[in-house]
Amino acid sequence: MDQTLDRATPESVGIPSSVIHEWVDELDSMVSDAHSLMVVRHGKVVAEGWWAPNGRELNQTLFSLSKSFTSTAVGLAVEEGHFGLDDYVLSFFPAETPAKVSPNLAAMKVRHLLAMCTGHREPTDERVFGGKDTNWVRSFLSLPVGEPPGTYFLYNSPATYMLSAIIQKRTGTKLIDYLRPRLFEPLGIENPTWEEDPRGINTGGFGLQVRTEEIARFGQLYLQKGIWGGRRLISAEWVEAATSFQIDNAPNENPDWALGYGYQFWRGRHDSYRGDGAFGQFCVVVPAEDLVIAVTAGTGWMHRVLDSIWEILLPGLRSAGLPEDPPAHRVLTERLASLALVPRPGAVSSTLEASLDGAEFAIDPNPRGLTALRLEFDSHGGVLTLRERGKERPRRLGFGRETWHKGRSTLMPEWRGQPLVASAGWPRPDCLEVDVCLYSSPFRYTINLDFAGLDVRVSTRVNVAFGPTDLGVFVARRTAPALATGIG
């Protein structure tokens, strides 16, 4: 089976190269951390780009775009007879069923999990994923269900997790392994990964990682009503049901989140549908235009990405092919090839920087248990090192000077294992600013070190977050000649 998408010029499928160029410029200007894009029309990739150091071979963190893949697994499991949409949720989990079952909980069905209309009135994420009980199924079933299922829309990642748990319960395989021969391998999704709960169940509603083109192939599969390479992977009936209006999700100030919800797919303007993930992952399908768009980014303004598609790309589409335009296509190709995340600017603060090379600081008591800080500089950049109470190995972050230093770091525990780039500059003579981009995810961190005499005030913020974006402050005091703990 041919697992790739063909390439073509935009003009050959009725899109002026200049229109795509305008759209790319808009993405680049309004989304400070755009990471990748792909435009597919009539089954052919006509534009693709990655903001370096991102690249075509790198998996992207999908957050809730994962839900649409979980929905697909449910459709396959239903077709294979493992369970039905009208099966009651409690029927799968007798061991986790609470002693007292409300009528609304008893009435909850698989289809209600799919359509985010379980009857819960209050957000469930923190109570299920953030609670003390590591049995997330039991935590979910213990929540009060205030409305009859099917009557009230509430976006609900634990509901999607329950779909993953049901698949594992009935098929005997994890969600990712169930999808591997049925979806991932036929589509050429080569190295997917999926987060798990403490008991080894894939999270379902988030945590999937695949490449940008694999997002586009998934959208193209749905556009083709479940057929790929001449072989049916998903039933046409499931594609229709999953992407159709199943529950009213209005009101919402952003129209693309108020036009109805399907089975883990959003309905959107221009009779479109999509999977999307927090802070900017998109798989947008516009059947009337035979169009699929994949985007990954780090933005708190997801609606602006969709606005740019509707306001720039769609008006530029033509129903028939256009004459080739080699100059415009060359300019677009060069633009796409030059996409890059911008490192931190700032000239050397020569006097202060020279005095800080090798400087060590004792950190005031803090919730993270950090005890010491050290700075080192050279002509290419430097290293920031932190020591933590009770830990023998210090945490290090290398950074470039007006360029990116590429690597990995455990300076913050949540960075562990993730590829990142870092750069530093001096926006003011007494302030060192370190920029850290976890480029396979939406997150970009800024660490400010403000110097005053022998003290340094260190503050950290992140571009997007599910909670506060200001991540705290600590103060460190310079020691001489060196710290007894000996960082380095």
Write a concise synopsis of the structure shown:
With 488 residues, this protein is of the alpha+beta class. 27% of the residues lie in helices and 25% in strands.
As laid out across the biggest beta sheet, the strand order is 13-14-15-16-18-19-20-21-22
Distance between the termini: 53 Å
CATH fold title of the largest domain: Beta-lactamase
Can you give the helix content as a percent range? Answer: 25-40%
Q: Give the domain tally.
A: 2
CATH superfamily of the largest domain: DD-peptidase/beta-lactamase superfamily
The level 1 CATH classification of the largest domain is Alpha Beta
Structural class assignment: alpha+beta
The overall average pLDDT, rounded, is 95
**CATH architectural grouping of the largest domain:** 3-Layer(aba) Sandwich
Question: What does this molecule look like?
Answer:
The strands form four sheets. A nine-stranded mixed beta barrel has the order 13-14-15-16-18-19-20-21-22. It is of the alpha+beta class and 488 residues long. The chain starts with 5 loop residues before the first strand and ends in a 9-residue tail after the last strand. It is globular and about 70 Å long. The protein has 13 helices and 22 strands. The longest helix has 15 residues, at 157-171. A hairpin with a 3-residue loop joins β10 and β11 (281-286). It has helices spanning 17-30, 66-79, 103-107, 110-114, 125-129, 136-141, 157-171, 175-187, 212-223, 236-243, 302-316, 326-337, 350-356, and strands at residues 6-7, 34-41, 44-50, 60-61, 193-194, 208-210, 227-228, 231-232, 266-268, 272-277, 281-286, 291-297, 360-363, 370-378, 381-388, 395-401, 405-407, 420-428, 431-437, 444-452, 455-462, 470-479. The chain folds into two domains: 6-337, 3-Layer(aba) Sandwich (Beta-lactamase), CATH 3.40.710; 350-479, Calycin beta-barrel core domain (Lipocalin, Beta Barrel), CATH 2.40.128.20.
